[in-house]
Write a structure and sequence with these properties.
This protein is α/β, with parallel strands linked by helices. It has a single domain, classed as Vaccinia Virus protein VP39 (Rossmann fold), CATH 3.40.50.150. Helices cover 26% and strands 26% of the residues. The radius of gyration is 16 Å and the shape is globular.
Length: 224
């Protein structure tokens, strides 16, 4: 999740969500990292299934806002036995203890990729079948790969508190990071976000969202 790094990150406050998974409240942003209606459900339905990542033989995922790693855990769970390259941008990593605590009840926390991440946090992971490239930087000014991602998870805090992630110029840069046929998914269905993705040349669909979200967005880059 994007924020200034000029002040210490207050410790997130953990809480259960409606599907039994844990999430946390960010005092800095005044918002939750994941949906109170079900953090794991939102990650699975909106990002993993919504992007079609489980159907990719060799997924390449770019995530904006690693947060508590819920989307990463759901992606690991959904892609067993397939090579996964996961590129995540996070400006303010949470303390390792928070990451351990929030993932402890999740069976995916026993997967080798997640265990390796906890051992190296906040660092990257390279092991057979998995590369997690964790970039601790401001994604809005980072050099993004071009025509690379099979999926982009746009999962920063909302436009009300994290507006730079939702501006048309940055959305166009994200569109350029998608490979032809690649898919960007986000929980935010605001009209200006949808129009920004369309202006970037993506075909945008409004999909039914999980509990607590009437609609979410899926945007696809045309194949060559």
């Amino acid at each position: 999740m994007q924020a200034s790094i000029n002040e210490p990150m207050p410790a997130p406050e953990l809480h259960p969500t409606a599907d039994g998974s844990l999430s946390a409240y960010s005092p800095r942003f005044g918002q939750d990292y994941g949906s109170r209606f079900g953090a794991a459900t939102q990650a699975r339905q909106v990002f993993v299934e919504g992007s079609g990542t489980p159907r990719q033989p060799a997924p390449r995922v770019l995530e904006v806002g690693f947060g508590l790693g819920q989307n990463f855990r759901e992606t690991l769970r959904a892609t067993p036995g397939r090579p996964l390259h996961y590129l995540a941008y996070e400006l303010d990593p949470v303390p390792a203890g928070v990451l351990r605590a929030v993932s402890a009840p999740d069976p995916a926390s026993a997967l080798p990729g997640w265990a390796a991440l906890l051992d190296t946090w906040p660092g990257s992971v390279v092991q057979p079948g998995l590369t997690l490239d964790l970039q601790l930087c401001d994604v809005t000014t980072a050099d993004l790969p071009q025509c690379w991602a099979t999926a982009i998870y746009l999962d920063g805090f909302s436009p009300a508190v994290n507006p730079e992630l939702w501006e048309a110029g940055f959305l166009a840069r994200l569109a350029g990071a998608l490979k032809p046929g690649g898919v960007l998914v986000t929980y935010c269905a605001a009209g200006f976000v949808r129009r920004g993705l369309q202006a970037a040349g993506l075909a945008v669909e409004r999909l039914s969202g999980p509990a607590g979200k009437r609609e979410v967005l899926r945007a696809t880059r045309a194949t060559l």
